[in-house]
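Example (one chain per record):
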Amino acid sequence: MSVQEYLNKHMLSRKIEDAVNAAVRAKSPDPVLFIANHMRKAVSSVITKIKARQILDSRGVPTVEVDLFTNKGMFRASAPSGDPAGMYEAFELRDGDKGVYLGNSVNRAVKNINEKISKALIGMDPTLQSQIDHAMIDLDKTEKKSELGANAILAVSIAACKAGAGEKEVPLYKYIADLAGRTHFTLPTPAFTVISGGKHAGNNLAIQDIMILPTGASRFEEALQMGTETYYHLKAVITEKHGAHGCNVGVDGGFAPNISRQKEIIREGLDLVKEAISRTMYTEKIKIAIGVAATNFCQGTKYDLDFKTPNKSGQNFKSGEDMIEMYKELCAEYPIVSIEDPFDKEDWEHIKCISGLEICQVVGDELLMSNPKRIERAIQESTCNALLLKVNQIGTVTEAIEVVKQAKDAHWGVVISHRSGETEDSFIADLSVGLSSGQIKAGAPCRGERLAKYNQILRIEEELGDEAFYPGDDSRHSL
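Predicted structure:
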């Protein structure tokens, strides 16, 4: 195509004339800059290049990063990763060569982006998020995205979402809200991990984490302050009772003291947190949540709360009914407002039972795996009343938006969650605000990859000003 043919095809002469006239009408002090910006807006954006690479997540494990280019700029995103991958979630493609990163490298996923996904998406309008995501799903052709890899597809999907926001010249959270058909913005109540256990820490605590929720704050900025101050009071409490070595942290930044009162080991952890809260000025304004991850210590139909202590394992088995009684007692003794995965991922009966008691929010994580079929079953059977959304478990931005709508239509709570393998990408902060999830779980107020999310919400709150709404106690019903 000749230059003249290109000019004629895109009607550039008319667009340049329009830009000059607009500069005159605006009485611009810098007409050349004004015309350049005007022309930039007049030309529709298309994806011109996609380049992927292997980077490391917060655990030092490889993951996928993508640079997506349009004629308006470059937009970068990376895929978080969990451990272990669940059988109902989208498939994370790794190379499997034990001689390279112990089998965890993602060069195959990177190659799929650079050679297959890139070819399919170049020339597409980045604002057509659903079309982009479904083009990748169709290219993959498998239910769990195992051909291209959910890690490959997700990184491109997030990068395209950022490019779409760039094309519309709006903040990312507003663009996501537009994609979801939402018109207002709710800032999430944060669930800060303060004590880590389970597979996230090397101590004896069976449950995966103990969290605090500053539900009594009036703004997110205040919630972050309350959570951070409590975190450091907890550090002092643990130092007094267990020494400085008890303040080592788990993968999410929560402290990992080696609490040892076996019979009441969960209570000992909760007592530490309760003591820390009592040392603040926010005693009535901070609630507690526990992430149990009970699948990790389920043995058949029993639950082994000593599974991490070799000489004790098998001595503290609890039945499903025993666990229900324990949860009832804990909720009566401590200000617990949310329990995540209180039973094994296939123990639908006991999860439904604890939900029916209505003593707290019951969150489905491994139970649901952000899988729409599992979510639909849980809705139909009234199994739980909140969704823990991990974007890498579903695989695209479009599907994440759809399952959040699915949960909210059922009047569930929604918790947007980080992963144990995180990156500096703060996407889930914008996702949480854009979808008005009402709750976010991004780890401790410690470690850069966790704080990237909380700091981004601070910026969003500042930008929204009086439009920002912090739900506090009503976070579960942030519809």
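Caption: The chain has a mean pLDDT of 91.
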